[in-house]
Write a structure and sequence with these properties.
Elements: H1 17-70, E1 74-77, E2 84-88, E3 91-98, E4 103-110, E5 113-121, E6 133-137, E7 140-146, E8 153-159
Antiparallel strand pairs: 1-2, 2-3, 3-4, 4-5, 6-7, 7-8
Length: 165
């Protein structure tokens, strides 16, 4: 505080312009730090939410693929990736990659008519179905999905009903 005695001889109460500028600069610095922290926490929450949603979609997809593979008579995957067809009696399930929606779409056909459609959103970074691997070995259907983490992969494995490559 300023204890300077002006012309009147009494002590002045108040702050100088320099003191005011210093306090305002500190408040500005604290505000910028708080904004940065809030932005980082918001981004972390958003990424965590997206990762949880993708995880739920992959689990849902795994359940559906396993159910379809259990009743399969024949599975066809061209070039080891999507599109993939699972045949079971009069039913056919097509799994196709939709790059616009960044989703894997499952269509179920009965006697040539589409009766059911479901979509499974996957991470937007995976813009091509070519990054997924489908293997059919010894009555086991195995599908590898890259995940957001560089080292991790999701793998769906399922025994195949009566399918013969």
């Amino acid at each position: 505080m300023n204890k300077y005695r002006g012309l009147s001889g009494r002590p002045r109460s108040g702050m100088t312009i320099l003191e005011t500028m210093a306090v305002m600069s500190m408040f500005l610095m604290f505000a910028m730090m708080a904004t940065g922290i809030l932005r980082a926490v918001t981004q972390l929450g958003t990424r965590t939410g997206e990762a949880s949603q993708v995880r739920r979609n992959v689990v849902r997809l795994a359940d559906r693929i396993r159910a379809d593979a259990r009743i399969a008579d024949k599975i066809v995957a061209e070039a080891g990736t999507f599109p993939m067809q699972i045949h079971s009696g009069d039913d056919r399930m097509d799994y196709e990659w939709d790059p616009l929606a960044t989703a894997l779409r499952r269509s179920k056909f009965r006697s040539g008519k589409r009766i059911e459609v479901d979509s499974y959103s996957l991470p937007p970074k995976e813009s091509s179905g070519q990054s997924y691997e489908i293997k059919i070995d010894d009555q086991i259907l195995s599908i590898g999905f890259p995940s957001e983490e560089r080292t991790a992969r999701w793998v769906i494995e399922s025994p195949i009903g009566s399918a013969r490559n």
